[in-house]
Amino acid sequence: MARRKLVAGNWKMHGLAADLGEISAVSIAAETAGADVALCLPATLIERAVRAAPGFAIGGQDVHQSDKGAHTGCVSAAMLIDAGASLTIVGHSERREAQGESDADVKAKAESALLAGLSVILCVGESDAVREAGDAVSTVSSQLDSSLPRGDVASAGVPDRLAVAYEPIWAIGTGKVPSIADIGEMHAALRERLKAAYGEAGEGVRILYGGSVKATNAAEIFGVDDVDGALVGGASLKTSDFLPIVEAAR
Ligand code: PEP
Question: What EC number(s) does this enzyme carry (predicted)?
Answer without folding.
Answer: 5.3.1.1
